[in-house]
Amino acid sequence: MLLPEFEYFAPGTVEEVLALLERFGDGAKILAGGTDLLLMMKDKVIRPRCLIDITGVAALNGIRYTPGQGLIIGAAAKIAVVERSPVVREKYFALHQAAGELGSAQVRAMATIGGNSCHASPAAETPPPLIALGAKVKLQSRAGERELPLADFILGNRQTALRNGEILTGFFLPEPPPNSASRYQCLGLRDAMEIDIVNAAVNLVLDEDGATCRDVRIVMGSVAPAPLRARQAESTLAGRRLDAAAIEEAARIAAGEAKPISDLRASAEYRREVTAVVVKRALQQAFYALTAGPNKGGLCS
Amino acid sequence: MIDRDLDRNFTAVGKSVPRKDAALKARGEAKYTDDLTLPGMLYGKIKRSPYAHAIIKNIDCSRALALPGVQAVITGQEAPIPYGIVPQNPTEYALAVGKVRYSGEGVAAVAAVDEETAEEALELITVEYEPLPALLDPLEAMARDDVRIHENVPYNIMYEGNQEFGDPDGALARSAYVLEREFKTSYVNHAFLEPHAALAGFSPNGELTLYASTQIPHYLHRTLSLVLQMPMHKIRVSVPTVGGGFGGKGEVSSAELCAALLARKTGRPVKVTYERSEVFAQHKGRHPCLIKMKIGVDKDGLIQAVDFDNILDGGAYAGWGIVVLFYTAAMIHLPYKVPNARFRGRRVFTNKPTTGAMRGLGGVQPRFAMESMLDELAGMVGISPYEIRMRNAVESGYTTKSNVYVPHSEFKKCLQTAVEKSGYLEKHGKLPFGRGIGLAGGYYISGTAYTLYMSYKPHSSAMIRVDTEAGVTLYCGATDIGQGSDTVMAQMAAEALGVKYEDVHVVSGDTTLAPFDLGSFASRVTYGTGQAIKMAAAEINKKLFAIAAAELGVRAEHLTAKNYRIFSRFEPKKAMDWYKAVEKYIDAQGPLVGTGHYTPPRTGGKFQGGKIGQSPTFGFSAQVTEVEVDLKTGRVKVLKVTEAGDCGQAINPMSVEGQVEGSILMGMGQALYEEIKVAPDGKILNPNLHDYKIPTAMELPAIDSTIVESYDPTAPFGAKESGEGPIQPVIPAIANAVADAIGVRFTDLPITPEKVLRALQKKKQQS
Amino acid sequence: MKQLIELQVNGETYAVPVSPRDLLVDVLRKKLGLTGTKKGCGQGDCGACTVLVDGEPVLSCLTLAIACRGKKITTIEGLAENGRLHPLQQSFVDHGAIQCGFCTPGMILSAKALLDRNPAPPEEEIKRGLAGNLCRCTGYKKIVEAVGAAARALTAGNLAGPPPEEPAAGEPAGALPANGEVKS
After folding, report:
1. B658/C94 CB distance under 8 A
2. DSSP assignment, residue C29?
3. Does C100 reach chain B within 8 Å, measured CB to CB?
4. pLDDT in tens, B93-105
5. Which of B28, B483, B694 sits opposite C76 (nearest CB)?
6. Which contacts of B689-692 are long-range, i.e. CB under 8 A and separated by 24 or more positions?
7. Which residues contact A36 (CB under 8 A, 6 or more apart)?
8. A110 and C113 in contact by Cβ < 8 A?
9. Is ipTM over 0.90?
10. What DSSP letter does each residue of B564-576 carry, written as one string?
11. Which of A2, A190, A273 sits opposite B116 (nearest CB)?
């Protein structure tokens, strides 16, 4: 499997990236980890004229946490770096889990968190937790910068709100509120190297009483062209005292909100059914983490 | 001369020595076919059909030929001689001739100065097709005589086989319990890690050398001779390191033929290496089977009769088909005593990549059926699944109704060991809902009695050369495909000669350098080549012992050799240095060479397919598998496999364990994850290793395997097969464990989470 | 359009002409003759092409060679030192973790990346670290055992692996003398 021909640039600054984008227009593609892009090029699905390798752009790398404000993750940060980040593990556990479930050790060492959202695969691992955690994407073009909620950035299967000449520079995740916990769950045939049948992330905030749901976000992957917020399920739980029945009901409602398709990995019916399972397990684990101890659970099954 | 096996005081056999090539492989220095280059070498690539069934109206290569760097383009018309692994039924071509019969079939091939140019040239070849209806389901194919995949094959039934032994209908009528079930097995691929590759070059004298990743250099040699219309003595097949085969590299691939044809056309060496998708197109994997089986047992659970109907999905070409068909027939006669049996089998053409031989061929599918049904029958009789197996298990000296003689069996010991070590009887039926434990048995041949074409030549041969310069060199045609045959052969030669294993050089897998061997398939190598090695070593020993006898003043038949010393069994002090004897022999007599050969007994029955399933001996195994079913998602997780195998005397126990562990994971894949999926137009939807899901390290369960105490007196050093037997019980043991876990019996592979969840829901509705 | 780039592989610097489209796996295999890196699928699914780039395990079939300028690449050929197998390599040999050997180079490099980061991984971590390297022969059991044993050997400070086998004193005869002459 060979790549088609293209020109290669490895700029050192965002400005240079933007200049190249302007010069090549539609013919340019951003190369970050390459695990999705180069595969598509090998399959001749796309034949870009030029690749702009952003992995050497310092401003797009790194993870910076400001206490009380939140976290900035550079678009070119490797999934493995996100997974290993102590602050991600401590404060944004669902993201830590999802990063750890992505591909293999090699794929995690290569792929970037920006690429995972920009590729906009319906089965992508990191967008559901990022959305659940309230992530905003930072976009930059020569016209300036803008911010969008990630939920408004991923529009569909391989479709994003990126404009011509614009790049994703990073993600902003707000400081998690007190009494909150996030968890991620996924389901594939095997325990590794899976393109998920379904996945889901929840971010649960409890009242001071430690039992009532103040706020919850439930985001499901692989059940719609883009990550899907289970808004009805969320509103079922909001303000409600959490117990097994409430979680069960919310999971069932979330499954009803899913819009899955049948493909070679699973049927739509099965996807819908197990959506309820992964949502329920993620909710249970988040609730358990808040009521029984820190960073418990996290098993992907 | 006293047979040295008798004392079984082995020095090289029975030792878990590291493989001869392990360090080289660990350093990345072992050369596989694609690692080789020759001066002036070109790269070959194959243009493949997007249609599953179509007439080739026209192929226009002119634009490809005009591309700078392209040296040659060939089509099927340039080698229109059909071939097949079963020579009586040649149906395949190097490249399609006249029509294509599966999506991904080769229609043209190019040779160019580099891969980039070759790939570009493929896009410049235009092929005009007239699409025909694609028949993807064997039942539909049998109903559509209007669409013939091969013109001379009515109703697309490549072959129908029938066998009957005793009075199956009467025996079923008299049985206390009769069970009838249908099973469906899936379309699975070998998924060896090294894609097929071939490198062909012609010498200035017009002699062809083909380096290829093959299991069977001999049949490749014959096929090259046929398709290229060249005498065999002008062709050399040489096998570099092989990255796994599992049966899939037994049949000749288009890569091999196209490399040779393109090399001849261009006058330059040509290498063709497959992409992973081409491995799936070449395929030759396991036959999906539609099985109807009826088993009758008496009130004590003794099997009275088996009635077995099998429809095998053969894909586009004949390949090993007829052999696999009759192997499925043979496999119902063991490892349990079956006094009456009937078989009806049909191998059917469909417009899909051809199925063929895959590890444990013919056994895995009926084993799944039979072992599943034995569990149910045990329940009907009111005895444990273990008890029904013990009551029916064969023992040494048994002859099946199909006239297969079993010289040696420790099958009962396998069942006992696996059951005791796993605590099966304490757990079966008693674990909490969602947890289950399953038992299954199995067996496999240790070689086949017949060549695929009429011939009386020995199936295996070996030559040992000893001198004071190169030491001990063993030449034999057996091919190490990663199973470790070079190591095992060196161990056997070392044992037979009384030298160190590390010092034995092995020259194998080369039709010019090594003497004749049929190849690495049918678990024939250790047993057959081992016999040939023993015979060759006996000749060396006879020559050396005559020298030593005179020197030491003892009778030659009292001598033995160990650790480079020849000594009297009765007075070990009467000893002589081994190489001293070698030197004296050569000084007086010239080169010291021993040759040996082996041909299995030509046993068989005078009935259709009566030669198939005949083997000089058999390996046996039993497995107990524990699973956990996620009741909410339907996912099955294999927790533990307890295995006990009878492979006779293990030549290299570490290698035997490796075969067992590899078999367990491969069987798990077929049971739970693996399935080639085909679109309605015949295209494979998952010709890759992300959606064709073989187990990863994460799926590794706990494995507790035991090599039971065993010694087959007919076998070289007592050794039998271990490469294909251990996969036989894997799938039914899992299915039986799932049945124990959730009370649902799955008869349709793979057992996916979706199927399990559906079954759980259905069960809930019913109760 | 080819350009000359410098690649640092196994401690050596090579000047190699490459096109942007050239993948690291092909440059290593075809241009540098380092054929220990294997191509099993070309799609990042099998892990046979795994090499280390700045210590991280990377799929060389999905990596542009041109993007590796200035980075330290380690292939399987770079592991043995002074002709002595790396403890991981030795452990794979000793434990029977190698059958056909096609997955072995990538498997050993993934294991090395794992142990470099986590010198004493529990079994589940070893499995997880190797999950991107498919093996069809061994069933993984002996591989996982080999990595565990190598980890223990490495952390015990036994960096050189097991000592070479000494010939037992007074062993009779033994192997052939180097010059082919047999002593009487």
Report:
1. no
2. I
3. yes
4. 999 999 999 999 9
5. B28
6. B689/B191, B689/B276, B689/C40, B689/C41, B689/C43, B689/C45, B689/C46, B689/C134, B690/A193, B690/A195, B690/C43, B690/C45, B691/A195, B691/A264, B691/A265, B692/B189, B692/B191, B692/B280
7. A111, A115, A119, A121
8. no
9. yes
10. TEEEESS-TTSEE
11. A2
Q: Tell me if C67 and A53 make a contact (CB, 8 A cut-off).
A: yes
Phi, psi of B351, deg, nearest 5? -90, 60
Is this model's pTM higher than 0.90 or not? yes
Helix or strand (DSSP H, E) at B379: helix B364-381
Q: What is the pLDDT of residue B454?
A: 85
Q: Classify residue B669 by its DSSP letter.
A: I
**Which pLDDT value is given to residue B433?**
98
Spans in chain A with pLDDT lower than 70: 293-301
CA distance between the termini of chain A: 34
Residue range B618-669, pLDDT digits in tens: 999 999 999 999 999 999 999 999 999 999 999 999 999 999 999 999 999 9
Q: Smallest Cβ distance to A106: which of C57, C66, C128? A: C57
Chains that touch B (3 or more CB pairs under 8 A): A, C
B551 shares contact with chain C (CB less than 8 Å): no
Residue C133 touches partner A, C-beta closer than 8 Å: yes
Residue numbers of chain B with a pLDDT score lower than 70: 1-7
- C-facing residues of A in 53-72 (CB < 8 A) are 53, 55
Q: What are B289-318's pLDDT values in tens digits?
A: 999 999 999 999 999 999 999 999 999 999
Cβ atoms of B243 and B196 closer than 8 Å: no
Residues paired with residue B249 on neighbouring β-strands, in sequence order = none
C-alpha distances in Å from residue B752, one per residue of B209, B635, B673, B757: 46, 7, 7, 9
Strand partners, B441: B622
Q: Do B696 and A189 touch (CB under 8 A)?
A: no
Share of chain B above pLDDT 70, in %: 99
Quote the minimal CA–CA distance from C176 to chain A in Å. Answer: 47
Please count the CA atoms within 13 angstroms of the CA of A223 that sit on its side-chain side.
30
The answer to whether the peptide bond before residue B750 is cis (omega within 30 degrees of 0) is yes
Judge whether C178 is closer than 8 Å to chain B, CB to CB.
no
Q: Which residues share a beta bridge with B58? A: B128
